[in-house]
Specification:
Layout (H helix, E strand, L loop, with lengths): L13 H4 L4 H9 L12 H17 L4 E7 L1 H12 L6 E7 L2 H5 L9 E9 L30 H13 L3 E6 L2 H17 L8 E4 L5 H10 L2 E4 L3 H13 L1 H7 L3 H7 L3 E3 L10 H10 L16 H6 L3 H6 L17 E4 L16 E6 L2 E5 L1
Parallel strand pairs: 1-2, 2-3, 3-4, 4-5, 5-6, 6-7
Antiparallel strand pairs: 8-9, 9-10
Length: 367
């Protein structure tokens, strides 16, 4: 599942951009609007925050998590917690662009800390009219389709750089135009470096189209789906931002499952709370905050929703041989619930309670 992204920077120094590599210039310009707005967090504060987050995640049944925008300081904090024996969950880290250069050669992965790749933020959010769409926003009309935080050409440069280095790239893509540009960049990188075997991932894919799903299957790109959008913003997407047609289809988990595309579900905490059972329930029932069913055809079975946090999620990260199922030889990571999540299609999964969370055979939470 996705972890706790903390975005921060050291400000924008336009006088020094010209001395940096092209990829660094691109990223600095695209993120200059947020650099300097979030205060730096020292390593000790980072460790305290991570320990608190770990307690919450364990209490709702999380055994592994993905932290999707990790700075050099955060990486060092994770390593220190691990060395001290305080990191009890398994962390898969996606570093911000440029962090690899800051850190140099990374330390070997451990049982608890592994670097999964690099995170790029290519567009914004539909709620702010900043996601890049191919058709105008429903409530704005005209030709306002949002825009890219990283222009298409620049995105291609960044993806090619990391692909050539053998790093998985996770690209934030809410709008379908952003998804098109991300897939173009990945296709170009694969063509330029055909001998590099790495599967890239798209984050959120809120307005994913059927033709894009087919293209992702062809390119071997995987989908991490922010299905909580359905509950928290589904009513407004249908009535305001996207209109009935596109709004009903957001977060199309059923189409992804039907296509055989590797996928996972996530909550994008702190945007929405960490609660896998709630997120699974949203994928199964697709009920909005106002009580409406949004896109009934995109509902999935409880089994497919559960897979989005277990077996399918492990496939997304290439860890199926280690986790995602309860089987001999796999990691002893599991959760004990007070009921059967697969009992019936009509039950509310978020009404189940976590009684115990176990990681590596060790109980990390118990009621």
């Amino acid at each position: 599942m996705n972890g706790f992204p903390i975005h921060r920077g050291n400000g924008n120094d336009s006088e020094r951009l010209t001395t940096r590599p092209l990829s660094a210039q691109i990223f600095s310009r695209s993120t200059s609007l947020v650099h300097g707005l979030v205060p730096d967090m020292n390593p000790d504060a980072s460790k305290i925050a991570m320990l608190r987050a770990q307690e919450v995640m364990a209490s709702v049944g999380v055994t592994s998590f993905h932290d999707m925008y990790v700075t050099a300081e955060m990486y060092e904090a994770y390593r220190q917690l691990d060395a001290d024996g305080d990191l009890r969950l398994r962390a898969r880290l996606y570093l911000g662009h440029g962090v690899h250069d800051q850190l140099g050669e990374l330390a070997d992965s451990t049982d608890r800390v592994r670097v999964g790749g690099v995170k790029l933020i290519s567009d914004g959010s539909i709620q702010l009219h900043t996601a890049a769409l191919t058709e105008p926003y429903h409530d704005l009309g005209g030709c306002h389709c949002g825009g890219m935080a990283i222009p298409a050409g620049a995105l291609g440069v960044l993806v090619a750089e990391h692909h050539a280095a053998g790093r998985q790239v996770a690209i934030h893509t809410n709008g379908d135009q952003a998804i098109d540009f991300a897939l173009d960049a990945i296709a170009a990188a694969r063509t330029a470096h055909p001998d590099v075997e790495v599967s890239h991932r798209l984050e959120h894919v809120q307005t994913l189209r059927e033709d894009q799903i087919a293209r992702m299957v062809e390119l071997g790109v995987v989908a991490s789906i922010f299905v909580n959008h359905v509950y928290y913003w589904g009513d407004r997407h249908r009535d305001r931002f996207l209109g009935p047609g596109r709004g009903e289809r957001i977060s199309p988990v059923a189409s992804v499952v039907a296509a055989g595309l590797a996928y996972a579900l996530h909550c994008d905490c702190p945007v929405t709370p960490v609660n896998p059972l709630f997120t699974m329930n949203t994928a199964v029932h697709r009920v909005t905050r106002e009580g409406h069913v949004l896109g009934a055809e995109q509902r999935v079975s409880a089994s497919d929703a559960l897979a989005g946090y277990t077996s399918a999620a492990a496939r997304l990260t290439g860890e199926s041989s280690d986790k995602g199922r309860i089987a001999v030889g796999l990691l002893a990571d599991f959760v004990v619930l007070d009921g059967d999540p697969l009992r019936s299609a009509s039950q509310e999964l978020n009404e189940l309670s976590v009684l115990r969370t176990v990681v590596g055979g060790e109980t990390v939470f118990e009621v």
